[in-house]
Amino acid sequence: MRNDIRSLAAPRASTEIVRLGPNKGEQMRKISTLTIVAWMAVSVWVLLPAVVGTQSGATDAPAGFDGVTNGFVDQTTHDADADVFAEQEGVDEGLGPVYNAQSCGECHQNPLMGSSSQITEQRAGRLVNGVFVSHRGDSLIHSRATFASIQERIQPGNTVRSFRTSLSILGDGFVEAIANSTLEELADDQARNTNGAIRGQTINVPLGEVPNATRVGRFGHKNQQASLLSFAGDAYLNEMGITTPMFPVENTSNGTFVGFGTAFDPLPEPEDDGEDLEIFARFMRATKVPPREASLVNNATVRQGEQLFDDIGCDICHTRRIVTAPAGTLINGGALRVHASLGNKIIRPFGDFLLHDIGTGDGIVQNGGNSTRNKVRTAPLWGVRTRNRLMHDGLSFTFNEAIQRHQGEAGFVTNRFNNLSSSQRDAIVAYLTSL
Ligand code: HEC
Ligand code: HEC
Questions:
Q1: Ligand 2 midpoint to CA 384 (Å)
Q2: pTM of this prediction?
Q3: What is the arithmetic mean of pLDDT over 265-280?
Q4: Residue 304 falls within a domain, yes or no?
C-alpha cells in the first residue's frame, strides 16, 4: 500500500533537497527527476546558497537518556543546572499561592531529569457564540494552593475542559533552533503533497524576552511558546507560582486576587530576579535528544513497522527528519544566536511541530486565536516508549487506542491503518515501542 496521496504534487526542489526525507518515495522521485534537478541545480544554488551549503554539512544531534550535555555547556555546569531544575521551592521562595507542583523536575522526570511524567493539568473555559472564553482568572486551573481556602476548581458554566499531559523537554534546544521558515515550508509541503487533506498550521506567538516580537510557536500542546526562556518564565509562574521580571503578575484564585498584600502571599513581585529562568533555559538547551531503544532498532518486526509507518502516511505529520538552522543564526527575535552545538543538526523528532485538527482538539485557545480551538500540535514521538498515558489529555491507554482517536486530518491514514492485517498493525505498535 504505497502512499499515493503524496505523489499528487511535484516536489519543490529546494525544500525537498534541503529539509525533508530521506524516504523511499522522495528518493525515487529524485532519481526520476534527476535531469530536471540537474539543470535547475545552478539556480537552486544561486537562490539558496546558505541553506544548501549548510545542509550538506548537517550532522546528527547527539541522542541519549544519560544526562550528558550535548555540548551547549560543560558537564559540571549541566549537572548544576539539572539540580536547579529539580529543586523544590517553598513559600519563602515564592511558591504559590496557587500552583501545580514544587519543581520543574516533579513533572519532567521520567526516566531522567527533563523528560515527562504522568502528571496532568486542568484547563477550562466556555464557548460563547463559537468563540472560546477562558475560565475566570485563566484557562489553567491550578490543582494545588498554599491555603485550603483558595483552592481553585472549575466553576459552573465552564463546559470546555481538558487535561494536559506533561511534555518532555529533552532535545528542545534543537527544536528551538529550527528556523521559522523550515516549519512554514513543512506546512506548505504537507498541504501540497496531500492535496490539502493534511494542513499543519503555524502560529506566531509573543516572546517574553523581546517585547512586541513574535516567532513561530513550537512548544506546548498548542504551540503556545516559541522560546525556552519564555516557556521557563511561563512555567515558573503558572506551574509554581513564582513571578519574574518576564512574568511579574501573580495568578489569581478563580479570578480573586491572592498576591502580595493579601494574607496569602508574603513576597513582593518579582519573586525571582530572572536568573533561574536563564538556568532552566540553559539546562533544557544542553539536553540530548531522546534516543531510540537500541535493543529494538534492528528487530525484524520493528523494521517492518517502520516501513509501514511511512507507507500509510503516519510520517506526514510525525516527521522523521528536520535540520536546525545554521550555527550563528539569530533567533528568538534577535535575543539568541544558534550555538555551534545546536546548529545545522539533524533531529528525528517524529513530529512536525505544527497544529492539526485530528478530532481530538480540546477546545481551549492559548496563543493561537480562535482558529486553533480544536487543534493540537503533533505529539513528537521521540521517547514515546516512556509514556503510558497518551495524547494531550493522557486518556488513551494503549498505542492502538491513541491511533484510533486520529480522525479529521488524519482520518484517511487511520483508515489505512485499520485496513492492514493484524500482524502489520502489531508491527507498527512494536515500532512505536522502539521510539
Ligand atoms: C505540574 C507539572 C509541571 C511543572 C511543575 C512544570 N511543568 Fe513544564 N510542562 C508541564 C505540562 C503539563 C506541559 C504541557 C503544557 C501544555 O502544553 O498544556 C509542560 C510543557 C513544558 C515545556 C514544553 C515542552 C515541549 O517540547 O513542548 C517546557 C519547555 C517546560 N514544560 C518547561 C518547564 C520548566 C522550565 C519548569 C519549571 C519552571 C516546568 N516546565 C515545570 C508540566 C509541568
Ligand atoms: C494529520 C497528522 C497526523 C497523522 C497523519 C498521524 N498523527 Fe499521530 N498525532 C497527531 C497529533 C496532532 C497528535 C496529538 C493529538 C492529541 O494529543 O490530541 C498525535 C498523537 C499521536 C500519538 C500519541 C503520542 C503521545 O505522546 O501521546 C501516537 C502514538 C501517534 N500519534 C501515532 C500515530 C501513528 C502510528 C500514525 C499513523 C497510523 C499517526 N499517528 C498519524 C497527528 C497525526
A1: 11
A2: 0.90
A3: 97
A4: yes
